[in-house]
Sequence to fold (225 residues):
Amino acid sequence: MKVAILQTGHAPAGLQHKHGDYDTMSKKFLGYGADEIATYNVQNGVFPASPCRYDLYLITGSPKGVYDGDEWISDLEDFIRISFTKSIKMIGVCFGHQVIAQALGGKVRKSNNGYGVGVMDYHHTPTGKKLSLCAWHQDQVEEKPEGGRVILSSEFCPIAGLNYDNRAISFQPHPEFTKAFVEDLITFRSGQTITEEEAKKARETLTKDNDYLFIQGLIKAFLVT
Fold:
């Protein structure tokens, strides 16, 4: 299977030496080395020559909002729609989850719930299994596209995971994040993106397990169907 990362943002430069950038984290999560599969910095307007060049794309997280109106976001939505019609598989994470939904007709907005930061609890809706996963977001998918089936949900984020007839699968949380990275990110963003009180509450969640292996299992099943 030919795989590529569509990178839509970067980890803070001050944390990359320790944890890597978002594409490196994504490759490791998928089971690839940093140099084994290609990265396309789509936030810089760099895309594969054709969606058909690869069999699978993973779209990363980003500090941008999918509704920001940047040209590259519009181009990415076009790329997603073409890939979808050609049944080229896609995985979306955080921003990737949101931009797939928006490209296919869903609605994404800033949540009135504020930031979801730390290790948050979810339900895998097909089985009812309870999961804890790393998260960092304020935007949420508030209306899912037609044909999208909710596979992860929580009180904080009701549409936290979607499966599109096994052509695309997406997650609002970050299964590629380690708790160590989230802990450092909380410290880095405390008093800036999030308040000191939000940072304190987020740190308290880091005692929970990180059930990223369950998400890896979902992705493996998705790739063989």
